[in-house]
Specification:
The chain contains 4 helices and 4 strands; from the N terminus they run E-H-H-H-E-E-H-E. It is globular, with a radius of gyration of 14 Å. By secondary structure, it is α+β, with helices and mostly antiparallel strands.
């Protein structure tokens, strides 16, 4: 995460329609890529709901949060990073709550129409090492 604090990253507050969060990308952590080879949050959320393949630490936190998830009670904004304001956006912080939200969107539950994010942009994003 130290790279994201460098002066090469410009920070903004932005919004994304809730229906579009499935297009956010998960980091290139081995267990997450096994669950979502496409790196897309939508695939990650679908496979998290089915528990395939298991990621013990993540799944425990997800299941306890998903049962009573309410975005309005979340503190702070999820953080996404991208090479430019046009994306693609990779989740740097907030994967559990965004997975809950993607699951709710996918299963037709009511969610806010827009989600506010902290967005970091840098043309050097590949230097971070976690972006797909």
């Amino acid at each position: 995460m130290r790279f994201l604090l460098s002066d090469t990253v410009e920070w903004h507050v932005g919004t994304l329609p809730a229906a579009a969060i499935e297009t956010l990308r998960v980091i290139t952590e081995r267990d997450f890529v096994a669950r979502a080879p496409s790196h897309l949050l939508g695939e990650f959320a679908r496979n998290t709901d089915s528990g395939t393949p298991p990621i013990d630490d993540f799944d425990v936190g997800y299941r306890s949060l998903r049962a009573s998830f309410d975005l309005a009670r979340s503190r702070g904004r999820p953080i996404v990073v991208a090479p430019s304001a046009d994306g693609p956006y990779t989740i740097a912080e907030g994967l559990t709550r965004l997975t809950c939200l993607a699951s709710l969107v996918r299963t037709g539950h009511p969610v806010p129409s827009k989600i506010e994010f902290l967005v970091g942009t840098t043309p050097r994003l590949t230097a971070w090492g976690w972006a797909p």
